[in-house]
Amino acid sequence: MKTLPALLCVLAAGATGHGAVAAEPILVIHGGAGVVAKDITPERERDVRATLERALKAGHAILDGGGTSLDAVGVAISTMEDSGTFNAGKGAVFNHDGKNELDAAIMDGATLRAGSVANVHTVKNPILLARAVMDKSPHVMLVGEGAEIFAKSLGMQPVPTSYFYTEMRWKERQQALEDEKKSGHHGTVGAVAMDKAGHLAAGTSTGGITNKRYGRVGDSPIIGAGTYADLHCAVSATGWGEFYIRATAAHDICARMEYAKTPLGDAANVVVMDIVPRLGGDGGVIALDDKGDIAMPFNTEGMFRGTIDKDGHVRTWIFKDR
């Protein structure tokens, strides 16, 4: 195990020497696992793919212009939060009381700085507030009313709770009330990116699970569970959050790479296809390493996901093969 001085030297190298190596920018995003084929109408598929492409192009424009992976992650995720297409920002699911409770996190792999927010109700873009917690406060995580007071102190104007409403999410909540069983475990958006300096970043944003109660917080805003990045690895998870927390899934993938020298794809597969299901959960991750390798394993029927390369070529998928 590295001593603290040695770790600080490594981090310093990541912010300077490592950044001297030119890299090809890459952006990978997801819009949630748990996709069921029978629920994907042609209209829904067009909407999902168009939103993924829009988010990828917005983030790529940042990277292509020499911007940071942190900025690209924030732009890509905020684009998805604004779309109403996914369970994050506008279009987030409703809890048992008919309210939207939003969570998000972002992490800078070069420095291990991180910011997250949980259980916010009037913040239009939780991912941008998470970034502000990282950049403009001494804290890592703010929750509930405190997070919203912090947002107002930065000039972020609150939006009415009606902003987050979509008919699809309201119907899901009504059905969940009738069934009294949890649904929508996998609705989350996320992004991982590498910029031209070779620095990695990860971010995740979610509305949680339909019909949740008691101030429940899942894995998305918890550093190491649903979101993690270091010098060599960046991960954003989507799935049944309780199990990703118990498995510290995002960090475990990166730790397997560092300590066991496991390739990214193998590390991600072990966590997603073995450890999380063994605990009783499901879902997927997107992961990126400093060599530009990508992993996107999932153990559900489908997972909304997409990539864009240095030349701006976009690819999107919903199921295993398309």
Give me some keywords for this one.
12 strands; 322 residues; eight-stranded mixed beta sheet; alpha+beta; 9 helices; four-stranded antiparallel beta sheet; disordered N terminus; 37% helix
Q: Describe it for me?
A:
With 322 residues, this protein is an alpha+beta fold. The chain has nine helices and twelve strands. The strands form two sheets. Strands 4-3-2-6-5-1-11-12 form an eight-stranded mixed β-sheet. It has a four-stranded antiparallel β-sheet with strand order 7-8-9-10.
Calculate the mean pLDDT score and round it: 91
Strand order of the largest sheet: 4-3-2-6-5-1-11-12
> Runs with pLDDT <50, length 5+?
1-20, 181-185
Q: Report the β-strand fraction as a percent range.
A: 15-25%
Structural class: alpha+beta
Helical residue percent band? 25-40%
Please report the total strand number as a whole number: 12
Oligomer: single chain
Number of helices: 9
Question: What is the straight-line distance between the termini?
Answer: 42 Å
Shape, principal axes of CA atoms = globular
- Encode the helix/strand succession as letters: HEHHEEHEHHEEEEHHHEEEE
User: What Rg, in angstroms, do the CA atoms define?
Assistant: 18 Å
Biggest pleated-sheet summary: 8 strands, mixed
